[in-house]
Amino acid sequence: MTNLDLANYIYLRLLLSIDGIGPGKILTLLNHFESPQSIFSSDFNSLVRVDKISNTLANRILTAHRSITTIKEIVEQELEKLEKLSAKVITYWDVEYPLLLKKIYFPPLILYTLGEFSEMDNYSLAIVGTRQPTNYGRSQTEKFASEFAKQNIVVVSGMARGIDSIAHKSALKNGGRTIAVIGSGLDVIYPPENKKLYAEIMDSGLVISEYELGTKPDAQNFPKRNRIISGLTQGTLVIETGLNGGAMQTASYALDQNREIFALPGYIGVKQSEGTNKLIQKGEAKLVTAPEDVLVELEFKLKPVIGQNIPKPTIELNIFEEKIINSLGTEAVHIDMIADNCSMNTAECLVHLLSLEFKGAIKQLPGKMFAVV
Predict the structure, then answer these.
(1) Local confidence band at 4 (pLDDT 50, 70, 90 cut-offs)
(2) Which pLDDT does position 355 carry in this prediction?
(3) CA dist., res. 16 & res. 19, Å (int)
(4) Has residue 13 got a pLDDT over 80?
(5) Same domain? 186 vs 285
(6) CA geometry: angle at 267 spanning 262 and 268, to 5°?
(7) What DSSP string describes 69-81?
(8) Could you tell me the residue range of the domain that residue 52 belongs to?
(9) Which three-class secondary structure state does DSSP give residue 54?
(10) Are residues 189 and 290 in the same domain?
(11) Is 89 helix (H, G, I), strand (E, B) or coil?
């Protein structure tokens, strides 16, 4: 707590304990009052003048002060436990608080962390998916997470079974940094078999939760957790998910947060691919088949970490397309000349040129001119 002192942190916790007061209303209140503590020093008329603060809420705020001693004791005990865990608490007003996360709707006002935030975390990508991936999903997660790690991109996920855990492990295996956003208190490792992974992430990455110590991994915690996963990152990659999977919630949050969404296409009829195929079909996610697809799409946003090292996507060409590519350069060439150079008729040449354009290998210019991208 660098920008919010202990006294104000206690009053912030007191605010959050009031029924009907959440992050949105607290941020609104703090636009009118200097600090959480000053909110409780105000009067009824001052409170009800604040947007969305009803008479009922104003009265709750004024009477909540009776609980300040209890909240203070809870906070003191919490800080002692955090210190024993080598963990810390960060608030929305602290300099360490992630800038990307500040921009979402209803950002968490309190984060509990194991590890430290890094400048690299501003250039991160989320990888999420089902807890029951197919072999295809497993291998693709390994491929994407490994390449992101090699490109200095932080991999963010939820440390759940399946895709999440594979993403974390693959990033660590390739010397990368990874962030786990969990749906329980920092002292409650879930799933329990991830105890070793949890320790590895702590050593070289970061574990985050908005939940107090001791909080169990109840089902209602995970949708809120998912908004942080997408909110921390420049984009979210969905590997495999059913139509009602948690990864679909993360994608929905990413859409609301104006972040990029990518999805891996899967086989029709396979339950684990129904969600990703739906995202692509609805135009909510960009279809990707290789890590390079994501890196090229986000090149401008990720440039500070990946520099000029973006590998170009591998494109499969038939022998006629190869012949055309070999005959072209960066200077535009007319279709008739391309056909002559490749010993094709114009109609046949046009078919292959359009195929190459669809694959992103060449571009068409006015006057039936073509050049390599």
Answers:
(1) low
(2) 87
(3) 8
(4) yes
(5) yes
(6) 105
(7) HHHHHHHHHHHHH
(8) 6-85
(9) coil
(10) yes
(11) strand
Q: How far is Cα 122 from Cα 330, in angstroms, rounded to an integer?
A: 35
CA distances from 152 to 114, 171, 175, 179, 314 (A): 21, 10, 9, 13, 21
What is d(CA 95, CA 160) in angstroms, rounded to the nearest whole number?
29
pLDDT higher than threshold 90 for residue 311: no
Q: Could you give the CA distance from residue 86 to residue 95 in angstroms, rounded to a whole number?
A: 19
Contacts of residue 221, defined as CB under 8 A and 6 or more positions apart, other chains included, come to: 183, 184, 211, 215
Is the same domain home to 80 and 229? no
My answer on whether 197 and 53 are in the same domain is no
Token output for 229: 């996963």
Distances, alpha carbon 364 to alpha carbons 294, 321, 332, 347, 348, in Å:
24, 15, 8, 16, 16
Q: How many domains does the chain have?
A: 3
Please count the other Cβ atoms lying within 10 Å of the Cβ belonging to residue 107. 20
CB of 207 within 8 A of CB of 111? no
- Helix, strand, coil content of the chain in percent (nearest 5): 50, 10, 40
What angle (nearest 5°) sits at the alpha carbon of residue 303, between those of residues 300 and 305?
150
Find the range with the poorest average confidence among 144-158, 202-216, 224-238, 347-361.
347-361
Question: Which of 250, 242, 192 has the alpha carbon at shortest distance from 216?
Answer: 192
**Tokens at 147, concatenated:** 């390449």
What is the pTM (predicted TM-score) of this model?
Answer: 0.81
Residue 333 token pair: 């060439």
DSSP 236-294: EEE-S--TTSHHHHHHHHHHHTT-EEEE----TT-GGGHHHHHHHHTTSSEE-SSHHHH
Task: Answer for the pair 276, 266: CB distance below 8 angstroms, yes or no.
Answer: yes
Q: In which residue are the tokens 């295809």 written? A: 136
| Residues 55 and 197 both lie in one domain | no
Strand order in the sheet with 110-114: 88-91, 110-114, 206-209, 178-181, 154-157, 124-128, 235-238, 260-263, 286-287
